[in-house]
Specification:
GO molecular function: acetoacetate-CoA ligase activity
EC number: 6.2.1.16
Helix content: 25-40%
Number of strands: 34
Pfam family, one: AMP-binding_C
Structural class: alpha/beta
CATH topology of the largest domain: Rossmann fold
Enzyme class: ligase
Oligomer: single chain
Shape: globular
Family: Belongs to the ATP-dependent AMP-binding enzyme family.
Number of helices: 21
CATH architecture of the largest domain: 3-Layer(aba) Sandwich
Length: 626
């Protein structure tokens, strides 16, 4: 922890921030910590005020009629539609979407977006699609995916999608659970300079979905309806979409969020936390498989221009995202710690090589951002750039912690809990802890918590996922430290905790130290309890192309961990690996690999279709001790 911020808001930042305007609206202190405390002490007052601030229409006097978790009831009797908030922010002076492919760039006006959405909504109705039916997408990150989602939502049907990097089996594991009636897809996509034809996968997907009434190709979503886009008012918690967990064990869990909860949460996260508005160009590198795609689409809720890119972040050069950000005039760019580290290792200096004068905020998610990478952004992108590292998840399709325009940024730390998020750090007995590692918990409900899991009629899977450890309190599964200045450090998943000699440690701390070494492309650490009572903690390293694991490098890796983390974090062995397996949204498979090394059957601990490179699992199986 450091007491020196790398970025601090100016008086102008604070005065002009949307969150400051909101504080005035609710007659609260504009100091963010005080405003946050009010928002969690008085959740009904906060969420009701948020509804009024964004003028979402008439609302019931009682905002929160049951505050238990799970089962909280929000805005009972209210009817609305997510798409209404998009329509009311339509404008004529700038595009709604900028689409960037590896070989072209096009713009879609707000009129075209709404007209094409209206036309597809009319087609869905003609196919007999009604509220509650499922429309699915097997699509790249293209404007047609946004159009299909908005059309689906506008009639009260439920959207669910995954990207075309998924195989047919992986897509069926998710979308096949939903008994969908319409499939929206594309012939293929271009990535890394190559065209990937998906016709065979589409055929296999259709064969596995007997409930389909129609398949619509993205190329068909060009018709424009000159009439108004009619929307279907639905209940506050009527399902908007179904997102899926990583699905590393068993079938992925389908997580449903309601129209009202998403609208409120995303308006808060986009407008108040990220300070994104109608003058912004919002570009997050993402895929329809990942909740950040849904989060980026929320830019339309505030009239921002969003950027869809379906190509490689590294083709034809390592700093491709910065190049795109410069070309489209992005004011907000979102990426991952891995991409930032890759740019640093490649020697990129984006501030010199691209015109990033419009850029004011870099968002980071996916894993913890090391202090060194955070400082690299200041040095090589711009000292004026606010680094907003965020952490949350598919579970709430938003963040619990992140940046805000009125709070400083400390290297390697997330600036503050989000408004309305009653975040705390608890020890095993359920007591709050500060300045030390604890479990991330949420002690009061939020409207964007899932309305249900798919095919979980009695709610048992939902309760098991979040509420078994601390009944009535959401346990998220992350280790965090809340600092003395109110920021938060995320140490990694608590279910993959390293626990050596009774000392709990986060794997993220090790990765931050090791992956900065030029010879190390990526690393994976596990801690496996042994049958004889011992504890084995190996570190697997993927080496850069020109590197070898010499004795000198092995000792330098250990010394780096010892010096930058602690002696307890030094691994028992350093082992060269051909790669690190991830979920398809980029998370390292620490828990399944740990179970493999404890003797579990590979077929039972991980679903191969959920892994980005399933063949890597076989290599780890061969490394098991006998």
């Amino acid at each position: 922890m450091t007491a020196t911020p790398q970025w601090e808001p100016t008086e102008q930042d604070i005065t002009e921030a949307r969150v400051t305007d909101f504080a005035r609206f609710v007659d609260q202190d504009s100091d963010y910590r005080s405003l946050w405390q009010w928002s969690v002490d008085q959740p009904a007052a906060f969420w009701g005020a948020l509804w009024d601030y964004f003028d979402l229409g008439e609302r019931p006097e009682q905002v929160l009629s049951d505050d238990t978790m799970p089962g909280a009831t929000w805005f009972a009797g209210t009817r609305l539609n997510y798409v209404d908030q998009v329509i009311r922010n339509a404008r004529t002076d700038r595009p709604a979407i900028i689409y960037v492919g590896e070989d072209s760039t096009t713009e879609l006006s707000w009129a075209e977006l709404i007209g094409r959405t209206a036309a597809f909504a009319r087609k869905l109705r003609s196919l007999g699609v009604s509220p509650g039916d499922r429309v699915i997408g097997y699509v790249p990150n293209i404007p047609e995916a946004v159009i299909a989602f908005l059309a689906t939502a506008s009639i009260g049907a439920i959207w669910s999608a995954c990207g075309q990097d998924y195989s047919a089996k992986a897509a069926l594991d998710r979308l096949g659970q939903l008994d969908p009636v319409v499939l929206v897809t594309a012939d293929g996509y271009r990535y890394g300079g190559k065209y990937h034809d998906k016709s065979a996968d589409i055929a296999a997907l259709r064969d596995g979905l007997p409930t389909l009434r129609a398949t619509v190709m993205a190329s068909e979503l060009t018709e424009t309806d000159d009439g108004e886009l009619d929307t279907e008012p639905v209940e506050f918690d009527h399902p908007l979409w179904i997102l899926f967990s990583s699905g590393t064990t068993g079938l992925p869990k389908g997580i449903m969020h309601g129209h009202g909860g998403v609208v409120l949460e995303h308006l808060k996260a986009i407008a108040l936390q990220s300070d994104i508005g109608s003058d912004d160009v919002f570009f997050w590198y993402t895929s329809p498989s990942w909740m950040m795609w849904n989060f980026q689409v929320a830019g339309l809720l505030v009239g921002a221009t969003i950027v869809c890119y379906d190509g490689s972040p590294n083709h034809p050069k390592p700093d491709m995202l910065w190049d795109i950000a410069a070309r489209v005039g992005a004011t907000v760019l979102g990426t991952s710690p891995g991409y930032v580290l890759g740019c640093a290792k490649a020697g990129a200096v984006p501030r010199k090589e691209h015109d990033l004068s419009a850029l004011r905020l870099v968002g980071i998610t996916g894993s913890s951002l090391p202090p060194s990478s955070s400082l690299w952004l200041s040095d090589n992108v711009g000292e004026h750039i606010q680094v907003a590292s965020i952490s949350g998840g598919t579970d709430v399709v938003s963040a619990f912690i992140g940046g805000v325009r009125t709070v400083p940024v400390w290297p390697g730390e997330l600036s503050a809990p989000y408004l309305g998020c009653a975040l705390d750090s608890w020890d095993e007995s359920g007591s709050s802890v500060r300045g030390e590692v604890g479990e991330l918990v949420i002690t009061k409900p939020m409207p964007s918590m899932p309305v249900a899991f798919w095919n979980d009629a009695d709610g048992s899977r939902y309760r098991s996922a979040y509420f078994e450890t601390f009944p009535g309190v959401w346990r998220h599964g992350d280790w965090i430290t809340i600092t003395d200045h109110g920021s938060v450090i995320v140490h990694g998943r608590s279910d993959s905790t390293l626990n050596r000699h009774g000392i709990r440690m986060g794997s993220a701390d090790i990765y931050q130290a090791v992956e900065r070494l030029p010879e190390v492309a990526e690393a994976l650490v596990i801690g496996a309890e042994q049958p004889d009572g011992g504890y084995w903690m190996p570190l697997f390293v993927v080496l850069a192309d020109d590197a070898d694991l010499t004795d000198e490098l092995r000792e330098r890796i250990k010394k780096t961990i010892r010096d930058e983390v602690s002696p307890r974090h030094v691994p028992d062995e350093v082992i060269v690996a051909p790669g690190v397996p991830h979920t398809r949204t980029g998370k390292k498979l620490e828990v399944p690999i740990k179970k493999l090394f404890q003797g579990a059957d590979a077929a039972k601990v991980v679903e191969r279709s959920a892994v980005d490179d399933p063949a890597l699992l076989d290599w780890y199986v061969t490394q098991r001790r006998t």
